[in-house]
Design a protein that fits this description.
two-stranded antiparallel sheet; 209 residues
Length: 209
């Protein structure tokens, strides 16, 4: 029976008598496997990659964990947020000078962890106006700002009603001022006329003399 030399291991024939570092003889290769350190590095790299994939998987899973009802709630909150912001923006745009400061909002946290505006308000000042004309202009501006949104709230209607009352009072003041002015003009005209009569009489007396 013939035995192949490739299958025979004979230290006396194949191994050198002295072995150096990095020797590639069959005996050294068998007795000195690959360093454990390189295997550890590869294991760590694999662990980091798996950890990163796991975190991404958890994030994606968290997004998918919302139920159908929760998704509908998020959609409703998004719509409400847009409506509220548009509503307050309309107040500010139409209110002009009577608007004091920026809009403030009330927020609600959705199932997705985000905050959505569900309410808002804009401060309007009715102060100022030293004359009835100025007060009327301010009242009109307040009404325009309050009724600017497509769907004014009950509070908006209340503010507009108060502004309308303010305008009515200012117009009443203006009417009284106009009446007083007309009376004063009539008195002045009468006084001027009397002065003219007196002057005329005195002139006639002088002519007669």
């Amino acid at each position: 029976m013939t035995i192949s030399s490739a299958q025979v291991y004979s230290p006396s024939l194949f191994e050198p008598k002295e072995h150096s570092i990095g020797c590639q003889c069959p005996g050294c290769c068998k007795n000195n496997p690959e360093p454990a350190e390189s295997k550890t590095v590869n294991t760590n790299e694999k662990s980091d990659a798996e950890s990163s994939q796991s975190e991404n998987s958890k994030t994606e899973k968290s997004d998918r964990e919302l139920s159908l009802g929760e998704r509908q709630q998020v959609t409703q909150l998004q719509q409400r947020d847009s409506e509220v912001r548009a509503h307050e923006a309309a107040h500010i745009a139409a209110g002009g000078a009577v608007v004091s400061g920026a809009a403030s909002f009330t927020y609600q946290k959705g199932p997705d962890g985000k905050l959505y505006a569900v309410g808002g308000e804009v401060s309007i000042s009715s102060s100022g106006g030293s004359t009835p004309e100025e007060k009327i202009a301010i009242a009109k501006q307040i009404q325009a700002g309050a009724l600017a949104p497509a769907n004014p709230s009950p509070q908006d209607l209340k503010v507009a009603s108060s502004a309308a009352l303010m305008e009515a009072k200012a117009r009443q003041e203006l009417s009284l001022e106009n009446q007083e002015s007309l009376k004063q003009k009539a008195v002045n005209a009468y006084s001027q006329n009397q002065d003219n009569i007196i002057n005329k009489n005195e002139l006639e007396k002088l002519l007669e003399a």
